[in-house]
Amino acid sequence: MTHAADMPLDLAPLEAVCALIESAPGSAGSLVFYGLIKGMAPELEMRGNPVALSRLRMLDAEQRRLAYALMELHAQGANRSAEWAACVARLDRAVAAG
Question: Using alpha carbons only, what angle is made at residue 90 by residues 47 and 65, rounded to the nearest 5 degrees?
């Protein structure tokens, strides 16, 4: 039997969100995603996510699917990966410049 931890992570949703934010860092949807990703930082796991889930209402259906995919990646521990950290660094730069 194969465990989820043994399977490679599909980081396509994370990459899609990074591209979305980089293309329009000041948009409402981008800022919701940015807050969601920043709230998934490993150091915040014990304190809880500071992003209100009601913010998901600001996203359209396709964007909510991406948000749910990010939450699944978080549940699988992807927020502790080098790829996740690299995406967060990209987002920090994009939002700061945007």
Answer: 65
- Considering the entire predicted model, what is its pTM? 0.76
Instruction: Report which residue type is found at 39.
Output: G
Token output for 26: 């000041």
Write out the two tokens for 67. Answer: 């948000």
Which H or E run contains 7? none
Which of these, 9, 24, 30, lies nearest to 73 by C-alpha position? Answer: 9
Q: What is the pLDDT along the chain (98 residues), one digit of tens a residue?
A: 444 556 788 999 999 999 999 999 999 999 999 988 988 888 776 666 566 677 888 899 999 999 999 989 998 999 999 999 999 999 999 999 98
CA dist., res. 17 & res. 6, Å (int): 24
